[in-house]
């Protein structure tokens, strides 16, 4: 099996094994990276279900505060369930990385929609804003503040439904 080196020199294997769930995922297409994580399409080898895999190198979590933030992100994301929030499917780790398994939004982010189209209609704007408000209201009703809402963290699924993602700064 081959592996890929992330931008920080950490090997990301092609085969990802979740020993607690007994699942193996295959790393596929690279989607993008943020300040701490890289995102890939991953496939459950047994079921062929496709997910987004957020992969964080443990080398980047050297400070106690960074580790706490990672634990907080997983804790918050695993506690929420709403149609306008990226579905959390679990996490696992190995000696080098932490892997967060999430719903895949194939239509990518609203930032990419903006770059492609430059403009949206008033009807589309109302359609998207309503969904964003529903997701944010759910979070606030559950005493969660996202703190990083931006086009890059608003993703679109196949049905063009908005999904709020990236709970790295949430409290």
UniProtKB/TrEMBL annotation:
Gene3D superfamilies: Phosphorylase Kinase, domain 1, Transferase(Phosphotransferase) domain 1. GO terms for biological process: mitotic spindle organization. PROSITE patterns: PROTEIN_KINASE_DOM, PROTEIN_KINASE_ST. The gene is LOC119643446. GO terms for molecular function: ATP binding; protein serine/threonine kinase activity. Signal peptide: none annotated. This is Serine/threonine-protein kinase polo-like. It comes from the Eukaryota. It comes from Glossina fuscipes. GO terms for cellular component: centrosome; cytoplasm; kinetochore; nucleus; spindle pole. Residues 25-171 form the Protein kinase domain. Pfam families: Pkinase.
